[in-house]
# Entry
Amino acid sequence: MGRVFYNENDPKTAAWLGGLAKRNLIESGTIDTRSITDIQPGECHPTSHFFAGIGGWSYALRLAGWPTDRPVWTGSCPCQPFSVAGKHAGTDDPRHLWPAWLTLIRECRPATIFGEQVASRAGREWLAGVRADLEALGYAVGAADLCAAGVGAPHIRQRLFWVADDCRMGDATGIGHGGGPENGIGFSAEMSGKGCEIGRMGATDAARSQGRSLRCDEAGEGSQLDSVSSGAWNDSDLLPCADRKSRRVESGTFPLAHGVPARVGRLRGYGNAIVPQVAAVFVRAFMEAERGAPPGIYGS
# Structure
């Protein structure tokens, strides 16, 4: 059965998830296709991925070097209620499923939780609520506003990445442990400073010194927005779009091309997925902060 639990209620995406596990691209485990609202605390595993999609968080943890025997929960709650492209229903949207996940967190008390959400104004307000809920349970919470282009991807995909660490699981470092909400605030500020370094997008030194999260629209000429000469996107194809711009996609994908099998399912799977390389950078930053390592460049 495996010690990893995946929860993904879209059957086609769950099948994709299973295929990736069989190819050992992500950790193998139990795949549950029910709604998270139907999951009971006793069914969760020490390592559980909620809203699992095509396994982006599992792959990101592998890229980051997260020990396979170290328990962790992850989840990217549905972004549609908070996306600028959605209906703007916010917490009134039935796809606002944070309360259901919070119930499982409250009952199971995972030691470490990673999550992600869109970086819209509504997304930031959502994260503020999530942080308040988790700090009330005794977690220290940190977050960073990062973009896919910061790791060399040929697109922006600005997202909020966050981590919650159980303050009761104390250790000698004092990072993310035992400090209550105050420690969470300090960790968040540290992560925001690292977010600027992670981005490496040509922002001014002044912006970096202020510890602001780096957004891709601040990138200057010659930044990684203008080049995909290295990294996982070396072999990407250019897809002409209706706005007269061309965007890079995985070679052979062309999800909008007529005649591609399961093209709608592919598009949904890619569209809802995180960029694992960005998540891996965030996870590594957390691991280094946990060890008390000095801030550095985490994009390599």
In short: Confidence is low (pLDDT under 50) at residues 170-230. The radius of gyration is 19 Å. The chain has eight helices and nine strands.
